[in-house]
Design a protein that fits this description.
The chain is α+β, with helices and mostly antiparallel strands. Helix content is 45%, strand content 8%. It is built from 15 helices and ten strands. A hairpin with a 5-residue loop joins β1 and β2. The longest helix is centred in the middle third of the chain and has 32 residues. It is globular and about 60 Å long.
């Protein structure tokens, strides 16, 4: 391997099932300059440091002229950038406004009150396995749960949930560096269509409020509010797509990892208290977001004896950092009993995953009940097919044989 080809190999679908040898090679040069001037940052210390550095920007408006970049799909859609693609103070204003009805300190009970509803959804999805000897974990479980959850959070009508699969796939493709112009066009079209749907829904919520974030945030777009109507639509698009894409991968990656580690699975089935640390270890070991390729430097930055120049694109390699042996002992071992597991699976800094509390609740409920109620599992494909997206990495399908349910 040569430094100039590592990013291409990481993006190559042939390596999607196991990119970790490439990340290990990448960590030999923790701050690596690619031939096109992009810097790949892979050590835990450097990734964490830069993600918290205000001299690094995720705002595409700071990209060098002519640079085709992930996140560009948010442009030319008639909507402003979502808050994940803005810097302070704009980022802080938008994110703080969105958080008021979502969590502490303004709405400390919102997600906890949702837990019982999500537990019911989990039970119903598993009930539907009855009489089947084979299921696809993605299509039958890992996908419908997060979609239902984020629609409940936003206040999207249940009957509209099936419409989001195509839109979400299209929008999510825009963050993947490998898709280029075609992927950007697909993502822009998906964002326009989803934005138009949500704009109409927000108007309806403004006239007749109901449960969910959209109704709670609609008044913020009035005179003196902290959001414009377009800001709210862009925020809703972000939350709907990000709110389920990553959680689908988290649940699916966790299921596959457990089935590949039967000793851990046996302990998990006997000990419910292992649920929380198990989810955290999956976030370290198989993070649903592998890297963040949407940064650019606003000034020269010195790190690990390298100067990253102003205006340079930077990829922060979360999955590589999460297996850095200088930070985690025996990092390629899956160990839910691992101590001091301060992983970067939900990122860090001001762009720490907005929906992390919801994703944790969903994954904990889903995995605990799935492996409690299904009597036995057997992988039907040792190497399942993966989604094309290199950033949002997870199996596209995960077919398993099962043998009945317990109550």
């Amino acid at each position: 391997m040569t430094p100039g080809t590592l990013s291409a190999q990481i993006l190559d679908y042939a390596n999607r099932a196991d990119p970790y040898p490439l990340y290990a090679e990448l960590r030999k040069t923790p701050v690596m300059r690619e031939d096109d001037g992009t810097y790949l940052v892979s050590s835990y210390h450097a990734v964490r440091s830069l993600a918290n550095d205000p001299r690094l920007s995720q705002d595409p408006r700071n990209r060098p002229p002519g640079y085709t970049h992930p996140g560009q799909s948010e442009e030319d859609t008639g909507l402003p950038p979502s808050f994940i693609l803005t810097d302070p103070p704009e980022h802080d204003r938008l994110r703080a406004t969105a958080n008021r009805p979502f969590g502490p300190p303004h709405s400390p009970r919102f997600l906890e009150d949702l837990r019982a509803e999500l537990a019911t959804v989990v039970a119903e999805l598993i009930d539907a396995f009855e009489g089947k000897d084979e299921i696809d974990i993605v299509d039958a479980f890992a996908y419908p749960l997060p979609v239902t959850a984020i629609c409940k959070v936003l206040g999207v009508p249940h009957e509209d949930e099936p419409r989001f699969h195509g839109w979400a796939d299209a929008v999510a493709s825009g963050i993947d560096p490998q898709h280029g112009g075609i992927g950007q066009e697909k993502s822009q079209q998906g964002r326009r269509e989803l934005g138009a749907y949500l704009a109409d829904l927000i108007d309806a919520k403004r006239r007749r409020p109901g449960p969910g974030l959209l109704s709670a945030l609609a008044p913020e777009t009035g005179p003196g509010g902290s959001m414009t109507p377009a800001d709210l639509v862009a925020t809703a698009v972000l939350l709907l797509v990000a709110g389920h894409e990553t959680t689908v991968n988290l649940i699916t990656n966790a299921t596959l990892t457990l089935l590949r580690h039967p000793d851990v699975l046996e302990r998990f089935q006997k000990d419910a208290e292992l649920t929380v640390p198990l989810v955290e270890e999956v976030l370290r070991y198989e993070p649903p977001v592998q890297f963040v390729p949407i940064n650019v430097t606003l000034a020269d930055i010195d790190i690990d004896d390298v100067t990253i120049p102003k205006g340079a694109p930077v990829w922060l390699m979360i999955a590589a950092a999460n297996r850095d042996p200088l930070r985690f002992e025996d990092p390629d071992r899956f160990d839910p009993a691992r101590e001091d597991n301060e992983h970067l699976g939900f990122y860090t800094g001001i762009h720490y995953c907005f929906g992390a509390p919801l994703a944790r609740i969903e994954a904990q409920l889903a995995l605990r009940e799935l492996f409690r109620r299904v009597k036995s599992f057997r992988l039907l494909e040792e190497r399942p097919s993966y989604r094309a997206n290199a950033v949002l990495r997870g199996p596209r399908h995960l077919r398993v044989a099962i043998e009945g349910l317990t109550d």
